[in-house]
Design a protein that fits this description.
The protein is α/β, with parallel strands linked by helices and 528 residues long. The chain has three domains: 45-194, Rossmann fold; 198-426, Rossmann fold; 434-518, ANL, C-terminal domain (GMP Synthetase, Chain A, domain 3, 2-Layer Sandwich). Helices cover 28% and strands 24% of the residues. Strands 1, 2, 10, 11, 12, 13, 14, 15, 16, 17, 18, 20, 21 and 22 form a 14-stranded mixed β-sheet that branches. Helix 2 packs parallel to helix 8 (231-241) and helix 7 packs across helix 8 (231-241).
Length: 528
């Protein structure tokens, strides 16, 4: 195997990720907040060299269990780093990993497996099989069920499988399917998006280039989804530049603060709704965020209040905030890096500019209209996926002469930066931007931990709010905060736990609207 070939020829080979790290930076660490299910003896700190060895061992076990080159290997297991090792091992034997979110329920997994052919394998664990997948007819969906942890009737226990030695499959061609990840599922059943080695490379390369330019080689601490394509550029960058990674599977603020004190990360990356719950770290006298140079958000819109508080907690001379805008179908398309002053001035609706040499952007607006006129956002990208399993026609229809319909509305500022306003399906008559409106409310009312503005009551903008510790919303303060924000319905207070969210903690707005219409969303009684 030639580990360097994964990135030198414009293709990223999943099976070689840790081999690259073992060859170039063998002592680089992967720090976990949990034990591995299949290899508990490995401990919670792996090196690149150790991880590469585990991938080789697991590849041998998958091969012994029947996985061959070209096989789909669906992975839906308890949220542990074993998921990543299994995906790399599948790639190592020439299989195509199909990443399903760890919190997927039985009907979702059943529907997604039905899109694959019956020669696919499912890698999971006894806990998932006993509970979430108990009602899924796996015998008629897949060729075999392989358990990373625990015994279960009808499943092959990988710990008991004697690994076969290599040689394993050669890397697939750059344009062949290399990975299947699913979309966030914000609007319904997630889509199974097919990435090639080439498209993965163009997810990786601009981020790698920026990391080297900014000399961002310190520890990166993150809460992320192991099932999303975002994880792969992160891993390959760490392998190439020797960057320690610290993974949190439990985003509890107290646990996160302890890990940050242990690792003193230079970069912190998390979902916006996770960072929102970490705001209290800014007041922690131990200063867990003191060494952070870059705060980075992914998957959703960040509230300015949250990121400004986080940046205030850094003791670095010039902390910066980074956010990316993109979709699994095209990769990261737009990128923003800014200082605290820039965030204060521009807010977080400014998501940046296209990636030089990788993506282009245009706004659909009437001919002759002012350049700042909002319109649909279209993107052209070298990181374009090669298809969607079971939805290839719909996938092609969303392209127009190579341009991808992002399904969002925005406008370009004076210097070409994109300002994101809303999803097309979330637009509300009379509201310029629900995202900006939510940002304003979060800033004016620090007691809020979430606010989502949705159309209800015959299309009227209705705020759904959550407060710190579910304290009753102060209606006097609310009325003062919204006095100049137009015609808003009375707010509905709910517990954050009752909001429908995706595996990346994004609010599922269409489902929220449906629950409100059906009266199935538990609403807290207002204080009298």
């Amino acid at each position: 195997m030639k580990p360097y070939s994964a990135t030198r020829v414009g293709s990223l080979d999943l099976g070689a990720v840790f081999a690259v790290g073992a060859a170039e930076n063998p002592a680089t660490r992967i720090i976990l907040d949990h034990d591995l299910a299949l290899y508990p003896e490995a401990g919670r700190i792996l090196t690149m060299a150790k991880a590469a060895g585990l991938v080789e061992d697991l590849a041998g076990r998958l091969k012994a269990a029947g996985v061959t080159a070209g096989s789909y290997v669906a992975i839906c297991a308890t949220h542990r780093f074993d998921i990543i090792l299994a995906a790399c091992a599948a790639g190592r034997v020439g299989g195509v990993p199909v990443m399903l979110a760890a919190d997927s329920d039985g009907p979702t997994v059943d529907a997604l497996l039905a899109k694959l052919d019956r020669t696919a394998y499912l890698v999971t664990d006894a806990e998932k099989l006993t509970y979430d997948l108990a009602e899924v007819p796996l015998a008629s969906r897949v060729a075999g069920v392989l358990s990373l942890a625990g015994d279960h009737p009808g499943a092959v226990t990988l710990a008991d499988t004697v690994p076969l030695a290599g040689p394993f499959a050669k890397p697939r061609s750059a344009n062949a399917p290399a990975l299947v990840t699913h979309s966030s599922g914000t609007t319904g059943l997630p889509k199974l998006i097919v990435q090639s080695g080439r498209s993965l490379y163009w997810h990786f390369h601009p981020q790698y280039r920026r990391a080297r330019y900014l000399r961002l080689t310190g520890t990166l601490a993150t809460v992320t989804s192991f099932a999303h394509v975002r994880i792969w550029p992160m891993l390959m960058i760490a392998a190439r530049i020797g960057q320690d990674l610290a993974f949190l599977t439990n985003p509890d603020p107290a646990r996160a603060a302890d890990l940050f004190l242990q690792t003193r990360p230079e970069i912190v990356e998390a979902f916006p709704n996770v960072m929102l719950r970490w705001e209290g770290m800014a007041d922690d006298p131990r200063e867990p965020l003191a060494n952070v140079r870059l705060f980075r958000s992914t998957f959703d819109a960040m509230h300015p209040r949250t990121i400004l508080r986080m940046m205030d907690a850094s003791r670095r001379r010039l902390p910066i905030y980074g956010q990316g805008y993109g979709q699994s179908e095209v990769g990261g398309a737009i990128s923003f890096l800014g200082t605290k002053g820039m965030v204060s001035r521009l807010g977080t609706r400014c998501v940046g500019r296209p990636l030089f040499g990788v993506t282009k952007m245009r706004i659909e607006r009437p001919a002759g209209a002012d350049p700042r006129t909002p319109g649909k956002i279209w993107v052209r990208s070298r990181g374009r996926a090669i298809g969607i399993i079971g939805e290839q026609q719909q996938y092609q229809e969303r392209f127009r002469d190579g341009w991808w319909d992002m399904g969002d509305v925005g406008y370009q500022g004076r210097f070409g930066a994109l300002y994101l306003l809303d999803r097309v399906v979330d637009r509300i008559d009379g509201v310029d931007s629900t995202l900006s409106l939510e940002d304003t409310l979060m800033t004016r009312l620090p007691e809020l931990v979430e606010v989502v503005v949705v159309p209800a009551e015959e299309g009227r903008a209705t705020p759904v709010v959550c407060t710190q510790k579910d304290e009753p919303l102060d209606r006097v303060r609310w009325k003062e905060a919204v006095r100049d924000l137009g015609d808003l319905a009375e707010p509905l207070q709910v517990r954050w736990e009752d909001l429908p969210v995706t595996s990346t903690w994004k609010i599922r707005r269409p489902l929220l609207r449906r629950k409100l219409a059906e009266g199935t969303l538990p609403v807290l009684e207002p204080r009298s």
